[in-house]
UniProtKB/TrEMBL annotation, chain A:
Pfam families: TRAPP (PF04051). Its main location: endoplasmic reticulum. This is Trafficking protein particle complex subunit BET3. The keyword Endoplasmic reticulum applies. Residues 1-22 are annotated as: Disordered. One of its GO terms (cellular component) is TRAPP complex. GO terms for biological process: Golgi vesicle transport; macroautophagy. The gene is BET3. It is found in: Endoplasmic reticulum; Golgi apparatus, cis-Golgi network. Keywords: Endoplasmic reticulum, ER-Golgi transport, Golgi apparatus, Transport.
UniProtKB/TrEMBL annotation, chain B:
This is Trafficking protein particle complex subunit 33. CDD domains: TRAPPC6A_Trs33. One of its GO terms (cellular component) is TRAPP complex. PANTHER family: GEO08327P1, TRAFFICKING PROTEIN PARTICLE COMPLEX SUBUNIT 6B. It comes from the Eukaryota. InterPro entries: NO_sig/Golgi_transp_ligand-bd, TRAPP_component, TRAPPC6/Trs33. Transmembrane segments: none annotated. The lineage of its organism: Eukaryota, Fungi, Dikarya, Ascomycota, Saccharomycotina. It comes from Maudiozyma exigua. One of its GO terms (biological process) is endoplasmic reticulum to Golgi vesicle-mediated transport. Belongs to the TRAPP small subunits family. BET3 subfamily. Gene3D superfamilies: Trafficking protein particle complex subunit 3.
Length: 209, 269
């Protein structure tokens, strides 16, 4: 399924077909190889731990789901700013030339290495500054069902947005990241939107030339 | 009827070889389960501590705001309809980094507040432990027989299966007086393995790490609760202990952890 998608996205950028396809293949293999080498843990344990965290937040915030979304985002952000270091160390990938390449790296390497899924990249904006990740088999929300009151407001997997926000910010990409839809809310699919605002300038730490 | 027995039947009179294949099958089953990278799990459980601290701060602020809100309740909050359509943008400048929160927690003077944070961490562990035993028991693990399970067997289950599942290793040492007191000793407790603290670490530094021992405290209590020993019956405390010999590389955390579990049973010994 996702292979087909990557072909489609190549065809839209007609001039880049030759330049992109070998890269895509190598990103896929990079992702798969690193995943195979990584130490792993039962996904169900991961799911239920995340569930316990969300449920604790529900208790503390008295089911104020807007606040819970924010809390999950912030937790994710704090994870993302550190996770990116590990990601760069493992993959040793060079800087991406454009957002399209970034999207492929996120889907085929990052998601693959850490969660063993490769979300499809879809819905590119016309000026190629925004895209969506179609997340299937989200390991955070396996077997999860939301109570009625949470369905309209809670973005259960919002931690993912935070992680992406933090990680991308560390590589100078200032993005807006949010869920558009979630199967848990009764939507057809789980779609996460990433919009690039601007590329931050490299900042040299104080005291270094 | 007898002729119906298939080679796959497992009855009470299971032979040694079928036990073997059961083990093998269990192993295959374990391997076939869906997996995620251990790193994301570790980061998630370690993030519980700064999260709990951040929550405490925000709840306190909210309480204070509520008081002032009552005085000037003029501000109109966003309607519910717009909430689901408006794309939320969070200002990352406001996010307090995890390391700052951990420092703040270790410097908390207010014991009451500190305990609230720790309780939150424990409670998350408790919920995980509670469900984790279900997860482990219903996987047809041939190592487990809960028919005549006494307390010692349950503790062994925690040391071996629960710990293995969570931290990829077993507890190194289990001590008991056979009267409800247990010491579970982990000389290489995985979540803090990468924390670089020297052997002669100051109290202050150890204080920073202490909250990271509370998640498994909750886990232990949760597992015990799911197997019939309620929260109230169990006391569990985690402390640092010295390692017996220094055969462990300097790069890892310099201290072992001892989980002291005390269980009071009303009727049986």
């Amino acid at each position: 399924m996702s292979r087909q998608q990557s072909i489609n996205s190549n065809q839209t950028g007609a001039s880049t077909i030759t330049a992109q396809s070998p890269l895509n293949r190598s990103l896929r293999t990079t992702g798969e190889e690193i995943w195979k080498r990584s130490e792993r843990i039962n996904a169900e344990l991961f799911t239920l731990t995340y569930g316990a965290i969300v449920s604790q937040l529900c208790t503390d915030y008295g089911r104020n789901f807007v606040q819970i979304n924010e809390e999950l985002f912030q937790m994710g952000y704090n994870i993302g700013v550190r996770l990116i270091e590990d990601f760069l160390a493992r993959t040793a990938l060079p800087r991406c030339s454009d957002l399209q390449e970034t999207s492929e790296v996120i889907s085929k390497c990052a998601f693959k290495i850490f969660l063993n899924i490769s979300p499809k990249v879809i819905n590119w904006s016309n000026n190629k500054d925004a895209f969506s990740l179609l997340i299937e088999d989200n390991p955070l929300s396996d077997f999860v069902e939301l109570p009625m009151d949470a369905m309209d407001q809670l973005w259960y997997s919002n931690v993912l947005c935070g992680v992406l926000k933090g990680a991308l910010e560390m590589v100078q990409l200032d993005c807006d990241i949010s869920f558009v839809s979630d199967i848990l809310r009764g939507d057809q699919q789980t779609e996460l939107r990433i919009k690039l605002n601007k590329i931050l300038k490299d900042e040299i730490p104080i005291g270094e030339d | 009827m007898d002729a119906m027995i298939s080679p796959y039947a497992t009855g009470d009179n299971a032979t040694a070889s079928s036990v073997m294949s059961e083990q093998h099958q269990f192993q295959l089953f374990e391997e076939s389960l869906r997996k995620v990278n251990i790193l994301v799990f570790q980061m998630l459980i370690n993030e519980i501590i700064p999260l709990s601290m951040g929550l405490e701060k925000k709840l306190e602020r909210a309480n204070n705001d509520e008081l002032s809100d009552k005085l000037s309740k003029m501000e109109v909050t966003e309607g519910e309809e717009s909430l689901s359509t408006v794309v939320p943008t969070y200002n990352t400048k406001d996010i307090i980094p995890s390391n700052e929160l951990i420092h703040e927690l270790s410097e908390l003077k207010d014991e009451d507040k500190y305990n609230k944070v720790i309780d939150r961490v424990r409670n998350i562990g408790y919920q995980v432990g509670n469900k984790l035993s279900e997860l482990l028991i219903f996987t047809n693990n041939p190592n487990l027989q809960f028919k005549e399970m006494d307390l010692l067997l349950i503790m062994k289950f925690i040391c071996r299966d629960v710990w293995k599942q969570l931290y990829g290793k077993q507890i190194d040492n289990l001590k008991t007086n056979h009267r409800g007191t247990f010491y579970l000793i982990d000389y290489d407790y995985q979540p803090i393995r990468e924390f670089c603290i020297e052997e002669n670490a100051l109290k202050k530094e150890l204080k920073l790490v202490e909250p990271f021992l509370e998640f498994p405290v909750g886990i232990i209590k949760g597992v015990l609760a799911s197997l019939g020993y309620s929260k109230e019956q169990v006391i569990c405390l985690a402390t640092f202990i010295d390692r017996p010999n220094n055969d462990i590389p300097d790069t890892t955390f310099a201290k072992g952890i001892s989980f002291h579990v005390q269980i009071t049973t009303q009727n049986n010994q």
